[in-house]
């Protein structure tokens, strides 16, 4: 991994390829040029200005809305969203670090196309056949810490497919595909760093077969997006599943009220945007009161409906049967009802 030092602070319209060629005239055939997405976005004008006196966080939240197609999970101000590119990432990948306080940087509009353009220009300027990876910093599901991954690539296969191969023990590989462009992005970041002002690095010595130059032959990093049938969590935090512990370990079977209360606690933790207040009824009446800390509105009713759905899923996972009976109020609201659990009334 070779850092490319001496690059300028890029702005809209700058010649990124020319700057890289000038700083790394030693580029050779087979090198992989890894470029931080931030500089690609800057030269392509993917920058949101923050007006003087404006709340930068408010501008950032509006930019997240504009770049998102759905919210996968939310906790307080933090949102994990699916972007228009198909990436599932915190805050739509909008970067507020290593930029002046009067700007925010979006992800490139099409990082695969950006990689192809940069690769072509480096070939024109230096006469070399290199691959290009556009990298960004992502978190990883259920793991602490950040790592760089590829959001765009050109000139090398994004995935190395080992499915169907046989290992040394005679086992046939069924699912193994190596995201080689992600590994290159992460490796290059070891010499780029987050605070060193080095947005470009070169990985040298990797053997790979470049894809054909024919249109459509190079799928780019888009091939790494797993959506549609391959997405096991299409609804994010609403994919509530039951505890793997036996029901007897979670709630006593003779405690109907406790079972419902436990299910609401699990559902509330999975759906933090729908806060509720639980309160047991009188001694021995088997009632759990659920209160929304807001006035009765259509939104509140929909929120409670989503929460009840998650509760029912949790209870069914624990082996209970349920039935919801709306009761209503004098004002016509359906925010009040009874959840029947098994045969006792709760």
TrEMBL record:
Source organism superkingdom: Bacteria
Any one GO molecular-function label of the UniProt entry: metal ion binding
Positions of the Coenzyme F420:L-glutamate ligase-like domain: 7-205
Pfam families linked to this entry: F420_ligase
Keywords tagged on the record: GTP-binding, Ligase, Magnesium, Manganese, Metal-binding, Nucleotide-binding, Potassium
Gene3D superfamilies: CofE-like, CofE-like domain
NCBIfam families: F420_cofE, PRK13294.1
Record protein name field: Coenzyme F420-0:L-glutamate ligase / coenzyme F420-1:gamma-L-glutamate ligase
């Amino acid at each position: 991994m070779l850092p490319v030092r001496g690059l300028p602070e890029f702005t809209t319209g700058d010649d990124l390829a020319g700057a890289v060629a000038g700083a790394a005239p030693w580029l050779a055939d087979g090198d992989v040029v890894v470029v931080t997405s931030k500089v690609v976005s800057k030269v392509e004008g993917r920058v949101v200005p923050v007006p003087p006196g404006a709340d930068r966080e408010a501008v950032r939240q509006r930019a997240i809305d504009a770049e998102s197609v759905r919210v996968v999970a939310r906790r307080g101000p933090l949102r994990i969203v699916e972007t228009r590119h198909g990436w599932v990432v915190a805050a739509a990948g909008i970067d507020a670090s290593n930029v002046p306080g009067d700007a925010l940087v979006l992800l490139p509009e099409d990082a695969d196309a950006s990689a192809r353009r940069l690769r072509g220009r480096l070939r024109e300027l230096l006469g070399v056949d290199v691959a290009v990876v556009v990298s960004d910093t992502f978190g990883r599901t259920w793991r602490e810490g950040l790592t760089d991954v590829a959001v765009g690539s050109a000139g090398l296969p994004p995935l190395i497919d080992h499915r169907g191969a046989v290992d040394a023990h005679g086992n046939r590989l069924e699912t193994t595909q190596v995201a080689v462009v992600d590994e290159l992005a992460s490796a290059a970041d070891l010499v780029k760093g987050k605070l060193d002002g080095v947005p470009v690095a070169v990985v040298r010595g990797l053997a790979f077969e470049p894809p054909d130059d024919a249109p459509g032959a190079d799928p780019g990093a888009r091939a790494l997006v797993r959506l549609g049938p391959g997405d096991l969590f299409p609804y994010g935090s609403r994919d509530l599943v039951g505890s793997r512990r036996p029901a007897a370990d979670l709630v006593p079977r003779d405690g109907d009220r406790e079972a419902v209360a436990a299910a609401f606690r699990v559902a509330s933790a999975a759906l933090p945007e729908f806060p509720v207040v639980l309160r047991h009824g009188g001694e021995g009446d088997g009632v759990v009161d659920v209160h929304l800390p807001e006035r009765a509105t259509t939104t509140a009713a929909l929120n409670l409906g989503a929460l009840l759905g998650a509760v029912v899923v949790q209870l069914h996972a624990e082996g209970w049967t349920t039935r919801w009976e709306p009761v209503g109020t004098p004002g016509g609201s359906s925010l009040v009802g009874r959840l029947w659990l098994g045969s006792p009334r709760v």
